[in-house]
Amino acid sequence: MIVVMKPDATGTQIETMTQQISAMGLTPQVIKGEHQTVVAALGQERPGMAESLEVGEGVEKVLPIMAPYKRASSEIKKDRTVVKALGLEIGGTKIAMIAGPCSVESEEQIVSIAKKLRDLGATGLRGGAFKPRTSPYSFQGHKEEGLRMLAAARAETGLAIVTEVMAPEHVPMVAEYADVLQIGARNMQNYQLLQAVGDSGKPALLKRGMSATIEEFLLAAEYILDRGNPDVVLCERGVRTFEDHTRFTLPLATVAYLNEKSHLPVVVDPSHGTGKASLVASMSKASVAAGADGLIIEVHEDPKKAASDGAQTITPAAFGQLMAQCRRVAEAVDRSL
Ligand code: PEP
Ligand code: MN
Description:
The chain is an alpha/beta fold. It has eleven helices and 14 strands.
C-alpha cells in the first residue's frame, strides 16, 4: 500500500511512519514528490494494517497498490527511472543504442567492431561470452576469456559493456567485467539468478521470456528491485506464437503498455524479435516511434561468418543507415539519438 502524507507533514512524522511500517514487518520506501511525500509499504499485507497506518500523524490517506509488481509499478514512482552505466544512459530523452555481435569471437573482432560502432553513435557494446544455445553442440561462448575481450574493447572505446550472465554462481565474475548484466529470455524466471543480479550492484537488462506474460515479466523485474537494485532495464525481444515468417513475434504494444504500467526503461531487441536482418531497421524505427528508450541490435562485420545468429545480424554499414533513420523518427517523437 501507499501512505500519502499531507503536504505539510514534518520530517519527524515521515520518519515515524517508516518506523511504524517496519514494525509491521513491511519494508518502507520513502518517495519524495514535488508537493507531497508518499511512503510505500511493501511486503505481505495483513488485514487491518491500512487502518492502523491511516490514523498516523501527518497522514492524508492510505491507498492500495493495485499491481502485483509493487516496486516496478508506476503507481509508486511517477518519475521515470534512468539507468546509467558509463556513457550509456537508458530512460532519458536520448535513445540508447546498444550494438555488437551475438557472440564475442576474438579480441580482434570485438575491439574492431566496437570502434566502428562507437564512431557510428552506439553508446553500449553488446556481445555474449556465455551463450545460451538451443543445442549443446553449438558454440557456447568464450566464457571468462570472452569477458576479458569485452573489457579490452571497453578500454579501447569507452563503450559500456552489456553481456549475459547465465548462472547465479557466475554473477560476481561477470559483474567484475560487465557494466550491465543481461539476463536472457531463457532465464527470465530463474529466480536465484534474478536475486544474485539484484545483489550485484550492477544495472540489469532483463529480457522478456519468450512465453512470459507482461505480468510475469514485471514480477521477474520485481525480484531484482526487491534486493535493493533500482537499475533494471526491461527488454522486449519477441515471443513465441504460431507465426513462422519471423523467428519470434515482436509485439510493440508491449513498449507502450510497459511505459504506462512501469517507471522502468524499456529497450527493444529487433534482432532476436525478427530473426531476419532485413527486418531489423523497420522494427527499430517502429520501436522508437512506440516509445522505446533504447535498442539492442546484433551487428557483425561479416554476418555470414558470425559464430551465432548470423541471419538476424546486420553489418556496420547497415547499422549506420539505421542510426540515421532512427534519428529522424526520434525527433518526431521528441527524443534524440
Ligand atoms: C542474445 O542476446 O544473444 C540472446 C541470446 O538473447 P535472448 O535471451 O533474448 O534469446
Ligand atoms: Mn543472439
